[in-house]
Amino acid sequence: MPLYIVSHKDPISPSQRDELAAAITKIHSTLFTTPSLFVNVKFEDVSAASYYVGGKPTLINAIHAHVRPGPTRPRSAYDALCTQLRALWESVFPPNDTAITTPLDTIFILGSIIAGEEKGFMLPEAGKDSEWVKVHLAEFEKRAGEGDEEMRVLVEEVKARGLGV
């Protein structure tokens, strides 16, 4: 349901992308009630992009999180998200490692997802994930039973986390 765009000026290896994507998914799913199947992470190499800060061209590493805003998500939750994303980045790219020159310059949390559809399901409003899961659980289980591996994992996760059940 959210879309995280990791813009990077410096090379990121496939294993680093895997680690970042898995951890971003876990962070978002833990802070909010979003099932992990619906956390999207995209990586963009911006080493040749035209990016400006303060009116001057620059190259940056940034995480832009497009999320669903709502009254059940206070500013403090988004501040915690920023803190955890920075800690994650610094665990993958330690700032005191002189061989690494990959600082995270910017984190923006954008409350820009008003509506959408994933896997054939309309997205719920922020904070209504559990009710949404409850409404669609039978369809998730049906698709899982028909061999849809993503839905099988989703059903296991929502039951393990007690979402909508």
Structural account:
The chain has two domains: 3-120, Macrophage Migration Inhibitory Factor (2-Layer Sandwich), CATH 3.30.429.10; 128-165, no CATH class. Helix content is 40%, strand content 19%. The chain is built from four helices and eight strands. The strands form three sheets. A four-stranded mixed sheet has the order 2-1-5-6, covered by helices on one side. Helix 1 (14-31) packs antiparallel against helix 2. The longest helix has 18 residues, at 14-31. The model has no long low-confidence stretch (mean pLDDT 92). Residues 1-133 form the Tautomerase cis-CaaD-like domain. Pfam families: Tautomerase_3 (PF14832). This is Tautomerase cis-CaaD-like domain-containing protein.
Write the layout of secondary structure elements.
Layout (H helix, E strand, L loop, with lengths): L2 E6 L5 H18 L8 E6 L5 E3 L2 E3 L3 E5 L8 H18 L13 E5 L6 E2 L2 E2 L6 H17 L3 H13 L4
Parallel strand pairs: 1-2, 5-6
Antiparallel strand pairs: 1-5, 3-4, 7-8
Helix pairs in contact: 1-2, 3-4
Summarize the structure.
The chain is of the alpha/beta class. Helices cover 40% and strands 19% of the residues.
Name the descriptors.
alpha/beta; 8 strands; 165 residues; four-stranded mixed β-sheet; Macrophage Migration Inhibitory Factor; 2 domains
